[in-house]
Amino acid sequence: xxxxxxxPPDIADGAPPExxxxxxxxxxxxxxxxxxxxxxxxxxxxxxxxxxxxxLFGVPPDAxxxxxxxxxxxxxxEHRAAFQPGAFGHVWCGAxxxxxxxxxxxxxxxxxxxxxxxxxxxxxxxLAADLRHLxxxxxxxxxxxxxxxxxxxxARRDSxxxxxxxxxxxxxAASAAAARALAAxxxxxPATPAITRRVLGLRCPAPTLTPPPPLPVHP
Length: 219
Known about the structure:
22% helix; five-stranded mixed β-sheet; Beta-Lactamase
C-alpha cells in the first residue's frame, strides 16, 4: 500500500514539529529498521556500542568500548572529522562502504552523526543502518505506535515494490514514540534524556526511499 504524504509547509518559529510528521488515518507513521548506535566521549572514545552495531560491523561491545572508531572501522578519510568531538556543529548524514572488522565483508552504511550538548559523558552520537538491506528488503512500518510490518522485507515482497535508491536524510519526528525509540538505542544512563532531546531537536534519521517518500525510522 502506498502511504499518501504531502510536502510539509515551512515550520514557523514556535510551531510544533510533530504537526508535520507523516500520518495516515490520523495515525503517526514511522519506518522501522535495525539501527546501530554508538556514543563517543569528549576524547573520541566509544562509551556505548549497541548489539546492532556489533552485528553490522563485526565487533562485540567489549572489544569496542574505550577505543576510537578509526581503530575499528576503516572510514573514508573525508568522513572521519564527523566523528571527532567538537569538529562539527551540525548533523552529518551520508553513506560510505565500510569493511566489517571480523571478516572484511563490505557493508554499505548509511550514517547519521550528531554532535551532542549537555549530555554527561557523551559528545557524539553515531547512528548507522545497512543500506543494502534497506534497498533489498525495505523498512518496516509502524502506525500509531503499532507495528504494521516488520523490517524483514515481507511487506515489500508482498506488494512487489522495488526500491531503486536509498539515501540517508533527516526529517522532523518530535513525538513520544520517536523519543522512546531513540532512548531504546541507548543504555539507562543520565545522558540518555539529553541525547534524545538533541536528536529530536536536530531531526531524526530517515532513509529517503525511491520511489516511496521518506519516513522517520526507529528500532
